[in-house]
Amino acid sequence: MSKTQMVKEYIFSEVEAGKIKEGNHLPSCREVALKLSINKITVNKAYRELESEHKVFSIPRGGFYLVDSGAKRLIIHKKIDYMAIKPEEKLIPYREFTHVINKAVDLYKDSLFEYEPTAGLVTLRETFNNILQKDGIYTTADRIVITHGAQQAISLVFQAVFPKNKGKLLLEVPTYGLALEFANYLGIDIIGIERKRNGFDYNELELLFRRGDIRAFYVIPRHHNPTGYTLSENHKEKIANLSSRYNVLVIEDDYLADVGDKRGSMPIHYYDIRKSTVYIRSFSKTFMPGIRMGAAVLPESMIESVTKLKKLSDLNTSRLPQAALDIFIKSGMYEKQIKKVRKSYEAKLRKAKEILSSLSPEELIWHVPEHGIFIWMQLPEYINMTALEIKLEKQGIIIKSAREFFLMKELVQECSSSRDLNYLRLCISSISEKDIESIATIISAIRSFDER
């Protein structure tokens, strides 16, 4: 047996013993060299041969990782869920929020269970207004409505803008699944425009606006769900200018604004001279998902209709979580929290990019942003998505086809991109940095499908 073969046999004996599992880091070359009393150059050569056989993959300055054990797969009880959109447990500030809840109870004990103004706690709206001004959104507290998450804000705005289904709604393709579902539920006429890595076809966008039957454009400019794409400043300004010229309402869903972006990044609202853009924000992805707290900044003309709809649907948002969030922000704990979350997400995205750069086959098209929570993949057409989902679920990894984010042909009058292609969205927010290594297993499963 050659020395390189000896290294391979040693590695696979460790795999069979359960000491190295798929996606795990292999022992360093120095460690194996000492163990087998051979030169570490020989170990590195063996590792490179395993890499060429697609048994392991390497990350520059990060070592080697096991892709395929070649043995019977172990039963994994822990599930790694790439569909869940919530911060991982260690990022949720339970102790800090318990403190501010108690503080809120003490502060508002005389009025805690009274009805709150429909638009939300006045002090929270003022606090939120201060945050928005730092982000280039200049408004007033009386134009802010606190909602049960960004989802309620979207639904209220859709209902206010499309009374009796008049006019059409322009949506990105793909787009946020629940927004699409709600628009369909309301019976709104939908038109789609393809969202590409570099934005939109702005000639097509202007032609659609010029027709005059589009009342609103729902758009996620930063950290797009599901693709993770972010529009450039030039493109956001183009959208603001075109919407102003053709009198189209922009509904800007900036739900992930707090997870960070490049210096100087602004929302579309910043470029809207008329200040007629609806701006929507959420606290769920950086804070406490269960608290369901979001907000909408409304044009003057929409305040009455949206607050009336909110009053009819739920009367008001509970005072206690609003007061607690207000205290949390003013204390400086929220700023500390989002810095912690940003650092975690960015580290996971860097690791994911290293894995994909080292391992993905040429026919796999993928995008990993610097900020945000989504990884976007376009798989080769010969991949059976259902079979891939089942295969990975048996290994404890939960994924799902991204079909729900696309406009179905029977639901739209026009759509420039309703093709039935294999897309996959991976959400990294609830995945630990260690478990990000499971992307190697996903790539291994994709590689296992032969083009026929």
Brief overview:
This protein has 452 residues and is of the alpha/beta class.
Describe this structure in words.
This protein has 452 residues and is of the alpha/beta class. Among the domains are: 74 residues, Winged helix-like DNA-binding domain superfamily/Winged helix DNA-binding domain (Arc Repressor Mutant, subunit A, Orthogonal Bundle); 242 residues, Aspartate Aminotransferase, domain 2. The chain is built from 15 helices and 15 strands. Helix 4 crosses helix 12, helix 5 packs across helix 12 and helix 6 crosses helix 11. The chain starts with a helix and ends in a 5-residue tail after the last helix.
Estimate percent helicity: 25-40%
Q: What amount of the residues lies in strands?
A: 5-15%
Give me the number of helical elements: 15
Whole-angstrom Rg: 25 Å
Distance between the termini: 37 Å
Strand arrangement, major sheet = 4-10-9-8-7-5-6-14
What is the secondary structure topology, with strand pairs?
Elements: H1 3-16, H2 29-36, H3 40-52, E1 56-59, E2 63-66, E3 80-81, H4 94-107, H5 122-134, E4 144-147, H6 149-161, E5 168-173, H7 177-185, E6 189-194, H8 202-210, E7 214-219, H9 233-245, E8 249-253, H10 268-271, E9 278-282, E10 294-297, H11 303-314, H12 319-330, H13 333-359, E11 365-367, E12 374-378, H14 385-393, E13 397-398, E14 414-415, E15 423-427, H15 439-447
Parallel strand pairs: 3-13, 5-6, 5-7, 6-14, 7-8, 8-9
Antiparallel strand pairs: 1-2, 4-10, 9-10, 11-12, 12-15
Helix pairs in contact: 1-3, 2-3, 4-12, 5-12, 6-7, 6-11, 8-9, 13-15
